[in-house]
Design brief:
The structure holds two protein chains of two kinds. By secondary structure, chain A is mainly α. Chain A has helices at residues 15-21, 24-44, 53-72, 75-99, 119-136, 140-143, 146-165, 169-185, 190-210, 214-224, 235-246, 273-306, 310-334, 352-370, and strands at 101-103, 106-112, 115-117. Chain A has one domain. In chain A, strand 1 (101-103) and strand 2 (106-112) form a beta hairpin. Chain B is α+β, with helices and mostly antiparallel strands. In chain B, strands 2, 3, 4, 5, 10, 17 and 18 form a seven-stranded mixed beta sheet that branches. Chain B has a five-stranded antiparallel beta sheet with strand order 12-11-21-20-19. A three-stranded antiparallel beta sheet of chain B has the order 1-8-9. Classes of the chains: A mainly alpha, B alpha+beta.
Chain lengths: 384, 630
């Protein structure tokens, strides 16, 4: 095993060393995927950079700068910042519930400087950070101790409750899935996992009865039988399937899609953008895009596995899974596999908060990669 | 405590195991997604392609331009003009239909009735169908709408076509009007145009009679639409069949003159080509502005029209039925001559004729003295015609009246014609179970009693007397490029000598010191022959006869007698026939003055000598009819 130049001085890497260590291949891959997004935003606007493609490109460049800066910051500093980030995101979430602006019937946005900021997006990354920080020092036995487990569950449950109150079911699901996945990766005993899964099975009908909003229930029901309400709530699903399906093998060609450009698709530039991709580039293009996503995820898994610190591993895997959950839920939703929940396609869908938080997440992933040789003692709290 | 210990190792291996497990899970999910893509895009791709095409293409009906209505010289009596309007697409009104109406109400004036209609139209149509909010906007209002458009979600400005009647009230009874389609209109027609919001169909007059011809056939435009139904671009277009023009026999100038002449009275007038029955003018006053109905009449306007005792909505020329009074006498005289009335037949009029214990009065209190046929017509002596009636009997009178065009619809193309009424013995028996009385024969002989005629029937009678042929009034000459059937009128079952005698009598009415001599046409070669008439509206009691009949002027308007007049001109070679009635206006014979003016104007202008502009006949017309100034 060759010893890399910085390995001898793990704790003190120069900026040049770090830049050299940045996984530029991964960044290029992300840029390719984002470019597919720009092309789609250009297409759904009827062949125009405004109103969506131009701001999205700008955001991507800002996001890329953030990614690199975040990547260059020592992973231990991120570890130190985990809790403050988490608490800040939590406060913002409370603020949203208390005084958030209503957008699309849901309180998801809060005026935050010039940007409309979606704190639930921030929370997804913050939760991964905080859980990785919390679980970093815990051994397999310690994790399964009730008190630790309770703390971890509270860290997950608190934002989940706040987000579900907004109400935003999709993000809640992702937050819970992120948290559960990190607990699982940290080594939670199967003795806990098995009963928890059974509890979920019991909880689903209960949630249907008491927790879900009418519109959420309607979405589920419509999903099960979209044609029952083809012009109402089933419209989204039916039209999305028509868009993707009509793409055929090779698609209608760039700018030739009719479904989304003619407004048959709601929120064509955000949650349903993948349908336009499927329509214009067909099976071949869609599979290619999925493969690109899979490669990015593969990179993420590889980065997680090669990190030397538990914090780094959990963080990298948590970010990767978060990315995956987005893709899975969005793609399955627009293809009519699961009910419609408001989840964007990462890197592709139009949206400032989503783009910036995704790039921030990739920055953290990259930071783990750059600092993969850094070992962090179990009882360390970072470098502050 | 060491920095790293065995516990780290166990976690690391656990992490690796579980990461691989999750990676396997993710791979499985990607496989499912790929499988779903395969199912949607390859297995069912064709089916979705068809659905996408259906989504994209929408058929839109195009309403064809409505055919014009023209007079005999091509003057446009009804045409189409640009109609600036605003439409509302319910689906695009993101703030709701109510809010959209509220917003547009701040830009242009909207009445509550209009708002109610819009809401109704939206309720019965699909959400993407544009429903008119307001039509016939001024250019300024239209420009204001366009300026505020960014704040008016769902509002579409639109330039369409709408019916226009340049002569307004004047031609209203001939032309009729168009109005919005009602549910009863859709009952026996499946023309898709009827479902088009804002479409108008003919509801009265020529507009109704020839609605099918002037309507045309719907075109269709295949357009690419978005989910809101908004048109993105047109793929193909079938502009449909434009409505056909209807050419009337009307002379617009003569009609205008007649309308002006009748204005202010509750009156009707018909001018016919005496030889063919072509209607040259058909006037009924007061009228209404047909444009009101097209735009949508307001309840206030409707109340004014229906509340007027002069009945502006009634086409008196062919829907009003009046006792013909003395204008009936030429028909009786004609029949009598045909029935071998001795040439020297005369009556001594003492002012009344006694039948049993009932006295039948002459209009002239002291009587006319010695009266022969010519004088009887010229002076309109009632007693003379009581005697004539007694000679003829009701059966001959009835058949003669019918032969002259009374008692049955004339068959003019304008709907709503009254058939008038000619009584008969058989009718009386069937209707009342009482035999016909001789007294009723006498009363019928002077055009009173049960007899009812329309002004158009009287004009027809005048034309038949003038021409000797069974002419019938016809108002539509050419529809599109098809000449309407115009059968040559048959000769009437009266001898030329009989006609000559009656024409002479009618000549004397105007030119021989008769009842209309004050208004004779003095211009040489344009003299008219005519017959005055007064139709009693109320019953005059025995006591009143004894104490002197009340002066018409002292009666309320609606109890005064109707004044009637029939005429033809010129006397020598009659070409124009006319009837004129002024309701409750016998006093001072305004109807005779009108007839004088109209017949004089007609002869001076002489539209029958001008070459008509019908698209079909110019080449086919016989040379001798194409002379004149045209």
């Amino acid at each position: 095993m060759t010893i890399r130049p910085y390995a001898a001085a793990r704790r003190t890497l120069s900026i040049t060393d770090k830049l050299y260590e940045v996984n530029w291949g991964l960044l290029l891959l992300i840029a390719i995927i984002a470019s597919a997004g720009f092309a789609m935003l250009y297409s759904v606007a009827g062949g125009s950079f405004s109103p969506w493609a131009a701001p999205q490109i700008l955001r991507f460049f800002i996001g890329s700068v953030i990614l690199i800066v975040v990547a260059l910051v020592d992973v231990r500093l991120w570890m130190s910042l985990a809790y403050p980030f988490y608490i800040a995101a939590l406060i913002l979430l409370v603020a949203v519930v208390v005084a958030g602006h209503a957008g699309l019937g849901a309180q998801r946005w809060i005026a935050f400087g010039p940007l409309g900021l979606q704190p639930s997006e921030l929370m997804k990354v913050s939760l991964v950070l905080a859980l990785a920080r919390f679980l970093h020092g815990k051994s397999v036995e310690e994790i399964s101790k009730p008190l630790n487990l309770l703390i971890a569950l509270a860290m997950i449950g608190l934002p989940a409750v706040l987000v579900v109150l907004q109400p935003n079911l999709g993000t809640t699901l992702i937050i819970v899935a992120d948290g559960a996945a990190i607990l699982f990766l940290a080594g939670l005993s199967w003795w806990w996992i098995a009963p928890a899964m059974s509890a979920v099975l019991v909880a689903v009908p209960t949630a249907w009865q008491f927790v879900l909003h009418d519109y959420q229930k309607r979405r589920v029901l419509t999903f099960l039988d979209p044609e029952s309400d083809a012009l109402g709530a089933g419209w989204n699903i039916t039209q999305a399937k028509i868009a993707i399906g009509s793409g055929g093998v090779t698609g209608k060609g760039f700018l030739q899609g009719t479904q989304s450009r003619l407004n048959f698709l709601p929120e064509k530039q955000t949650d349903f953008i993948f349908t336009n991709f499927g329509e214009e580039f067909g099976f071949v293009g869609s599979i290619a895009l999925l493969i690109l996503f899979a490669v990015v995820i593969g990179y993420g898994v590889q980065i997680a596995m090669s990190a030397r610190s538990q914090f780094g591993r959990l963080l990298a895997m948590g970010i990767t899974l978060n990315f995956f959950f987005y893709i899975m839920i969005n793609a399955a939703m627009v293809m009519g596999l699961i009910p419609v929940v408001g989840i964007p396609m990462p890197l592709i869908s139009y949206g400032g908060s989503a783009m910036l938080t995704v790039m921030f997440g990739f920055g953290l992933l990259m930071s783990v990669h750059v600092h993969r040789q850094v070992e962090i003692p179990r009882h360390s709290g970072g470098i502050i | 405590m060491p920095v790293f210990d065995g516990k780290d190792k166990s976690r690391y291996s656990s992490f690796t195991r579980r990461s691989l497990l999750l990676t396997g899970g993710m791979t499985a999910v990607f496989a499912v997604l790929a499988g779903r893509l395969y199912q949607l895009q390859i297995r069912n791709g064709d089916q979705y392609k068809t659905q996408a095409e259906d989504n994209r293409v929408n058929q839109r009906l195009l309403s064809p331009p409505r055919g014009r209505i023209l007079d005999r010289f091509g003057l446009e009596l009804a045409n189409n003009r640009r109609n600036y309007r605003v439409l509302l697409v319910a689906e695009q009104a993101t703030e709701g239909v109510g809010a959209a109406l509220e917003a547009i109400g701040k830009v242009i004036l909207l009445t509550d009735a209009q708002k109610k209609r819009v809401l109704h139209d939206i309720a019965i149509n699909k959400k993407f169908v544009p429903v008119p909010i307001a039509e016939n906007l001024s250019w300024e209002e239209f420009a204001r709408i366009n300026m505020h458009l960014p704040y008016l979600a769902g509002v579409q400005p639109d330039v369409g076509e709408t019916r226009d009647y340049p002569y307004g009230e004047g031609m209203s009874h001939v032309l009729g009007y168009v109005a919005a389609v009602g549910p009863e209109d859709k009952k026996d027609s499946d023309d898709a145009l009827l479902s088009l919001p804002g479409f108008r169909i003919g509801k009265r007059g020529i507009e109704k009679a020839f609605d099918a011809e002037v309507r045309g056939a719907a075109g269709a435009s295949r357009v690419e639409v978005n989910a809101y139904g908004r048109v993105i671009r047109e793929l193909s277009r079938d502009s449909g069949v434009p409505g056909q023009d209807v050419w009337l026999t009307i002379d617009g100038e003569l009609q205008k003159f007649a309308d002006q002449r009748l204005a202010g009275q509750s009156a009707a007038c018909a001018v016919l080509d005496a030889q063919t029955g072509d209607v040259l003018a058909l006037s009924s006053t007061p009228g209404y502005d047909p444009n009101f109905f097209n735009v949508g009449i307001t309840p206030a306007q409707w109340r004014v029209l229906t509340g007027d005792e002069r009945k502006p909505l009634l086409n008196k020329a062919l829907s009003g039925a009046y006792p013909p009074g003395s204008t009936f006498k030429p028909a009786m005289a004609l029949t009598a001559v045909q029935d071998n009335l001795p040439a020297d037949f005369s009556v001594n009029c003492t002012g009344a004729l006694t039948l049993g214990n009932h006295e039948f009065h002459c209009w002239k209190h002291g009587g006319h003295g010695h009266v022969d046929l010519q004088r009887g017509i010229a002076q309109s002596c009632d007693v003379f015609f009581y005697e004539i009636a007694r000679r003829l009997g009701i059966d001959k009178m009835e058949s003669a009246a019918r032969a002259l065009g009374l008692g049955a619809p004339t068959g003019i193309e304008i709907p709503g014609e009254n058939s008038g009424f000619i009584p008969g013995a058989a009718w009386k028996e069937a209707r009342f179970g009482i035999p016909w009385q001789l007294g009723e024969t006498l009363v019928t002989g002077i055009g009173q009693g049960y007899v009812l005629t329309t002004p158009l029937q009287l004009a027809t009678m005048a034309a038949r007397i003038a021409s000797g042929r069974a002419v019938s009034p016809r108002i539509a000459h050419t529809v599109g490029t098809t000449v309407q059937p115009r059968p040559l009128p048959d000769p009437l079952p009266f001898s030329d000598a009989a006609f000559a005698a009656i024409r002479k009598g009618m000549d004397a009415v105007c030119n021989g010191g008769g009842t209309a001599s004050r208004w004779r046409i003095a211009e040489p070669g344009m003299e008219m022959a005519g017959k005055t008439g007064t139709a009693q509206v109320r019953r005059i009691s025995k006591e009143e006869h004894a104490g002197g009949v009340r002066n018409d002027a002292s009666l309320p308007w609606n109890l005064r007698d109707h004044g009637l007049f029939i005429a033809f001109a010129p006397v020598a070679q009659p070409r124009y026939a006319l009837s004129c009635i002024v309701e409750h206006g016998a006093l001072g014979h305004p109807q005779v003055q009108m007839a004088h003016d109209i017949l004089l104007f007609a002869q001076q202008r002489d539209p029958l000598k001008l070459r008509p502009a019908y698209p079909t006949t110019a080449a086919a017309l016989p040379a001798n009819m194409m002379g004149g100034r045209g």
